[in-house]
Write a structure and sequence with these properties.
Blueprint lengths: L6 H10 L1 H22 L33 H36 L2 H15 L3 H12 L3 H28 L2 H8 L4 H38 L10 H8 L8 H27 L2 H8 L1
Helix pairs in contact: 1-10, 2-3, 2-10, 3-4, 3-6, 3-8, 4-6, 5-6, 6-8, 8-9, 8-10, 9-10
Length: about 290
């Protein structure tokens, strides 16, 4: 039986890993920016002041300058961090629900039903996130929930494949078979044995889902499938400023860097968690 993950040991291993440390710092900056935007931004991010348009950084009281409409760039970046993090977390929750639901349905129900679920998962994997978002937008219109559901379903079916393999491995171990022989019910087995033993893998996979969600949210907002104006997001900022990239490149560079840093942060954090939760690493650290 795989031992439970010891949180302090995992944290030490994560912070001792260069990729994990950089990822944790970048994700921490994203979370900090989102939290700060809840209580403070230099200006109203949706406030239009044409007379203050195209201000350069550190001029007119605007640290990062303003766009064509006079909206403060730093305020939009902070608010965009909140929108991005909220969408990514909600999408990851939907992905976990879809992924675990399909995985458990594939391994806990009768074999013929499990085969149908596996085939359904393979079919859903063929549908990219963008196509799902386009279908949902055509039916319900562009909104944050459209993006959340599209990303969640798209990432969830991929998560289901990993979770199904891990769940099948755990259910075939001797201690689970012994628990069944002792009269343990299905849901008790899931709660006591299955979830605790696949949790490390799920945490790593969900951190990677978050990186996909950040990138997908920016791409969908850029293409016009996200929440309509005046909602602020990094993808919308890129879309609105793309025509002025030659004249004001910084207005595109800032949100582009924010997206890149967030995606890189979640990817590096996922890599660091994968190494930190590795059983062999935990044995070496304990020794």
């Amino acid at each position: 039986m795989k031992g439970p993950v010891q949180v302090p040991l995992v944290v030490r291993a994560l912070l001792g890993n260069r990729s994990g440390l950089v990822g944790a710092v970048l994700v921490g900056l994203l979370v900090l920016s989102a939290l700060v935007s809840l209580v403070w931004t230099p200006y109203d991010p949706t406030l239009v002041r044409p007379q203050d348009g195209w201000l350069l950084p550190f001029s007119g009281g605007h640290v990062l300058g303003t766009d064509k409409l006079g909206r403060d760039e730093l305020s939009q970046l902070l608010t965009g961090a909140r929108s991005t993090l909220r969408t990514a977390l909600l999408a990851a929750a939907v992905a976990a629900f879809v992924g675990l639901g399909l995985a458990f349905a594939a391994v806990l129900v009768p074999r013929w039903i499990g085969a149908v679920v596996v085939q359904l998962t393979d079919v859903l994997i063929a549908f990219p996130v963008l196509l799902i978002a386009m279908i949902l937008t055509a039916v319900y219109g562009g909104s944050t929930w459209t993006v959340v559901v599209a990303i969640g379903v798209g990432a969830g079916v991929n998560l289901a494949r990993v979770a199904r393999a891990e769940a099948g491995r755990v259910l075939g171990t001797d201690y689970v078979l012994a628990a069944h022989a002792a009269g343990s019910g299905t849901w008790r087995t899931v709660r006591k044995h299955l979830l605790p033993n696949i949790a490390p893998t799920l945490i790593v996979q969900l951190s990677l889902v978050l990186s996909v969600a950040v990138l997908a949210e920016a791409a969908l907002s850029f293409l016009g499938f996200g929440a309509p104006a005046p909602a602020v997001s990094w993808g919308r900022m890129l879309h609105e400023q793309q025509s002025y990239i030659a004249a004001r490149p910084l207005l595109v560079i800032w949100p582009g860097l924010a997206v890149a840093a967030s995606v890189l942060g979640f990817n590096l954090l996922g890599d660091g968690l994968r190494e930190a939760t590795d059983a062999r690493l935990r044995v070496r650290e304990a020794a």
